[in-house]
Amino acid sequence: MVGRLFQIVYLLMENEHLSARELADRLEVSVRTINRDIEKLSEAKIPIYTTRGRDGGVSLLPDFVLNKKVLTDEEKSGILSSMKLMGTVAYDDEKEALQRLEDFFGEAAQDWIEIELDNWGEGYFDKERFGQLKHAVLTRKKVTFDYMKQGDISHRKVRPCKLVFRAQSWYLYAFCEERQDFRYFKFHRMRHLEVTDERFDPLSPPKGEASHYVSQKKTFQAIVAIDKCMAYRAFDEMNPSQVKEEDDHFIFTIEDADESWFTGYVLSYGQYAKVLSPADARENMIHTIEEMAGNYGAGSRGKFKV
Length: 306
Known about the structure:
The protein is an alpha+beta fold. The protein is 35% helix and 27% strand. The longest helix is centred in the last third of the chain and has 16 residues, at 279-294. The relative contact order is 0.07.
């Protein structure tokens, strides 16, 4: 439906006026559907109106803000770029509407940006899950799932508000009925996801909602040496403005590191990383490595007895 509404606006931008029958024929729907769509566009504050008579029909006000004559090429290109980002996760009818907009803007539709959410083997983007959650947000249907946190798996029922891409990951921002508060839920930590038939009234998320995302764990500044053979990865994942180069390695400063994340992250570099400071982080790393070695040594001194 969203794509069809956009196509109506597009057609009226190209034509001074069209009858409801002409719109219905072009979009392959009934006149009754077109009349309902016109009502929805009016409710959305699109300056659309109808006139009766032989030369009447459906029209947009001449000074409609999206009229291509009042947009610069840079503004047109900016609109297309924003819509291309949404196009990576759009339904087929919305992608068709984007193509129509590109045709309408003509030469301004420069193909200067491409956005692909699949990340070439470094994790994955779950399009099916994205579609489920997008549907739940737009139709205001409650969602249930099992959510995995450190040391805990809990069942949740939530009222979804929006999808958020932050810090290289997708999150669902929703009201959690168990916690009675708004929360962020990471896509990849959800299991047994189900969109229910139970609907809910529109929500009003609190201002400053990003505070729910900020970690409440105690953090510290860490300094880590990374061998140059792993530079390709380190510069992808850490702040390149806080790095010093030595003969055979780089020294990175990591702000706001927390213990549970930091230890596992450095260990993922194997022998190609070394914690330089702080001292307690070095000691924790040594202790963790000794426990890991115990999993493979004689007598099974580690946590696993298999």
